[in-house]
């Protein structure tokens, strides 16, 4: 497939990527997130963005005004959402629930609204608050790699290195993302483990993957 501009200088991607974006603090996050969405809106892509920090949500919603988008419309090109109504809806996290959300959102964008490509972004700091089910984060990320090929899409997961500071957790995050965005470069990830193998290890260790 023809590479698509990501919104960062010299960075392009092809549909079907599940990308881990590492950053430090809100300013770096916005320097990655907003150009990614802005480039997609300019290209006619559907953009779905789930934020955890209210400041990020405000910045994303401001893009709607920049492009004259009515985000109240179900078929709006830009769909900003927050972690409380998605990852943590009902006060807990569940893998099937969240992948079901993405499936419905992507399916509607492509089949109902006619978008040819969907850019998704998720801010992952919600997983650090000890909400029930948040221990399933890594199994969820692994299962997203199976879901990825259902639609013409790219999934970009944002991890703040100032908050995800545990080295063991960072290694596991890397093992569940085939591609990494780091210091403005999109890199193939040598730490990546295919989902069947990754989830199999967790099952063998007696850990839940559902």
Secondary structure topology:
Layout: E1 4-5, E2 12-13, E3 18-23, H1 25-43, E4 46-51, H2 54-67, E5 78-82, H3 95-112, E6 118-123, H4 137-147, E7 153-160, H5 167-175, E8 179-182, E9 185-188, H6 195-204
Parallel strand pairs: 3-7, 3-8, 4-5, 4-6, 6-7
Antiparallel strand pairs: 1-2, 8-9
Helix pairs in contact: 1-2, 3-4, 4-6
Structural features, described:
By secondary structure, this protein is an alpha/beta fold. The protein has a domain at 46-70 and 85-182 and 189-210. It is 39% helix and 20% strand. The protein has 6 helices and 9 strands. It has helices spanning 25-43, 54-67, 95-112, 137-147, 167-175, 195-204, and strands at 4-5, 12-13, 18-23, 46-51, 78-82, 118-123, 153-160, 179-182, 185-188. The chain has a 7-stranded mixed β-sheet with strand order 5-4-6-7-3-8-9, sandwiched between helices. Strands 1-2 form a two-stranded antiparallel sheet. Helix 4 (137-147) links the parallel strand 6 and strand 7. The mean pLDDT is 93.
Brief description of this entry?
The chain has helices at 25-43, 54-67, 95-112, 137-147, 167-175, 195-204, and strands at 4-5, 12-13, 18-23, 46-51, 78-82, 118-123, 153-160, 179-182, 185-188. With 210 residues, the protein is an alpha/beta fold.
